[in-house]
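Incident log entry.

Two folding requests arrived from the same account within the same minute. Monitoring flagged them as a possible duplicate submission, but the sequences differ. Recording both here for audit purposes.

Request one:
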Amino acid sequence: MLAVTVVVLVLGIMIFGANHVEGAFGIQLNPCTLAQCIAECKKALQEKYLSATCATGSQGKFCICLGVVIDNDASEHATVIKVDTVNRHGTLLEVVQVLTDLNLVITKAYISRDGVWFMDVEDERVLNYIQKALEIDASMVNSVRSSIGEYTSIELSGTDRPGLLSDVSAVLTDLGCNVVNAEIWTHNARAAAVMHITEQSTGSAIEDPKRLSLIKELLSNVLRANGNFRSAIICISSPEETHTGRRLHQMMFAARDFEKLESVNENSTGPYVNVSDCADRDYTVVTVRCIDRPKLLFDTVFALTDMQYEVFHGTVITGRKEAYQEYYIRHVDGLPISSEAERQRVTECLEAAIERRSSEGLELEMCTDDRFGLLSDITRILRENGLSIRRAEISTKDGKAKDSFFVTDVSGDPVDPKIVLLIQQQIGKTVLHVRGKSNVPPESPKETPRSFLFGTLFRCRSFQNFGLIKSYS
């Protein structure tokens, strides 16, 4: 008997391109304009996880046909993707990750692991063949992830504080390190970052052991600036096929960000997570209700998978504002949750996984020509204007930089619209854009000659040339 997982996913799409669609739920994927996207999705799922397997035994040849069906005719408002795959711990996460990395928004999903096949197979060689054929190397990474070339990977985690990213980027700039890509999360006074850097002079990975040791030493000083020596963790390595979202979740979990702080406002709006028993079927039922956002399904499925739970049945429904998720789970040992302590831990970890990527604060998006020291300059400006970065996504491609910063004031309160206008005047309103809801007036004061000159200097050279004090000294 071979168990099979059946996953039905109903997709809309969110495009993080020039138009920056905030949320296009219930919109069918256009077969013409998105044909390549769908083809990549199907190829990744079939080749990496769902390829058909055939074997020959004493009873003759039989096939185990696993696959993915993408249907634009089943619904007028969405694209339906049906996935049939072998039961394996983490398979559901792999499928969701493929779709999430394609920037597809899953509006509905139905998961079931009750499908079974009965096969009269007694030949041990055939059974071994099937087992080996269906095993997937854990190091295998889906083909749709883009390669960013040679770089050195830096992982940082520690206690969060205002200006932390500014200090880190200033150190890297002063050491001649160029930040190619980065993602930074903060939650419950913890911070984690995955940064990809290159040698500024060569554009390649940093290999000199002495330089790597110096980078690690200076970054350690930055993380320990608040006196918390035990929480600072730095890892510098060569390129690895590691999913950034997974690593950030794992780093924040290791930092125990799921532990509530006394200063956290208990009345603030957050996700609702309930963990209860389903005694008649020997499952634990996990119910999640929260504000919908991109990559929410990936975050919840990853949290359950990383805590060694299997999803046997599940339903995911999203509206324009709220998302509802229901999972029937067991631990990988086959048992449901049996203690109140474990129930509380699952609840807290799911809440943390949801909140880490929540868009706290005002989103500022910067699009401009890339240059050395750009990240150090922009984060310094945000810091000097009293803003705290809650989350950031840094990317560079083809000589262009596109960075997103989610900011609040240093107390965690909403940003004063006047501060945003001031920053736009300093950097340039064509460079820095406000995304989402904002109280910034649509008509802002005209740029003065001084601000125009300042913005021009910002685009062409580093502020360190003006002798600014290094923040780590």
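Request two (distinct sequence, not a duplicate):
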Amino acid sequence: MHSTLRRQLLDFVSVASIPTLFLFTLQRIYSLSAPSSRTTITLQWIATILCALLLFAPSLGLLRRKPVASALHSISEPPLVPSYLPWLGCAITYLMGPANFLRTCSQRYGMTFKFLIGGNYVVAISSPTAIANFLRDRTGVFDVVDYQLIPLLSNLTDPSRNQYIYEIVEQKALVAANHGLSQRNLPKVSTTVNYEIFKTLGNVVGKGIQLPVLDFVQRSLYVAVSNSLLGSHFPSLATFDDFITFDDGAPSLLRKMNFLARPAYRARERLISQFARYIDTAWREEEGGGGSLEGASEVMSDIVRSMKNSELTKDEAARLMSSFFWGSHTNMMRTTTWMVRHLATDSILLSRIQRELQAAVDSKFYDAQSILHMHPRDLDGPEFALLTSFVKEVLRMNMLPTSIRVAVRDTTIASDNGEFIIIRKGEQVLANLYGLHHAPHIHDDPDAFRVDRFLNVSTEEMRQKKTLSTFASGQHMCAGRHFAMHTMRMFVIQLLHFYDIKAAPLSSGVSPSLPPVDRFSFITVTDAAKDIEISIQRRDSVPCDIVGTE
């Protein structure tokens, strides 16, 4: 520490003395010249100033470039990942497989590294402290670029409108979403989504069915969540295929790979048309300048009202709704799909979750009605501790980086062990959640799936340790995090309580194993390289009168 302090003091003395030394040198150089005319004076002054600047340019650069940090802490530049492609840098390697690229770089360069991609330097940070400080920063030094994805997803083509649209999204729409989906207000929509899951499972499964896990989860969750949030005026069944096409092509849209994104582009435009018609059909004006969506959830009415009270056009509002809608579905679908795959291929895991569920039913939730009226607070209790740990472990294993911001000036990010990471103006900072969640010194055996990894870890303890980041943090934390956690757990509870599930055997007769991750996964939660089929049979105890099928 003493050597570090001495070095910092020497830096301070050298920097503080620059102006004095500069003037002294300027004076000494000029005194050697003894000018005899006005023209000569001018030329000699110019020469004098140039000489002094050449002598002290490195020190002046130190003044301009040195980021501010505590004198008692070390600061360091992130190691640069080498690349032999000018401007493109590591773009091809990263875009072809973000998870593999980040894993390889983390193993080779540590928790922080820098790489060039498309003319921009990206600093990937993985340490718990650095990610927490980065996401919670309120100094304005990092400009959020997440919203710049909205035009790509929504096809907003007028750049002059983008800044205003971002302001409406951040200051109006997201405020309404955060309020309406908060823990306090979640019960206003939770019972509806519970019933919609129940009815949709009944309609999809009937008495029994065998189908791919991905198709089963996507179809069931899409219809249930759409109906619970938007009501009967929105044609959830009729829009399902277009939504899936849009979701499949979203990575190509975000990467501007238009030649691959044509089906997604056309499906998105059809969805936007449906949203425009839905808003016109379902909106009911009220006295006092208000209004609401007939049959929809309160939170969706609040979001649409915030856009109607702005200067957004009808087309812009419909396009934003399509983006919100996509964001509210895609992560839940992918995460729940992984959960069902784990349950179908791991009989021990399935048995453990079923035993916990049965114990909760025996002690507290006696019939179908009590299960469908579960309060969100019930799912956070000890009765479902293993299920909650299950969700968190699936998210830990499969989350990809989502938060990226650009530095508007030179700065530093406080990291672990009193270290500071240097960030230069214009560099983008990526919260490398995959690196955080797969670091062996943070999570024991990080590549192994352990359903009870978070069983005895309280929410407060995780918040303090900062070792799990699944819904971001700070002012840009996911607005639908409480809704998503409730919906995913309720889906699993109902699936296991009302149905028998097992993985359908392969053509060889062998039971399938958990499929590997698709190395080309690009958005938020990984995809599987291949899918498995699941056999689902309705139990005789299921009350058919509210299932929606015979």
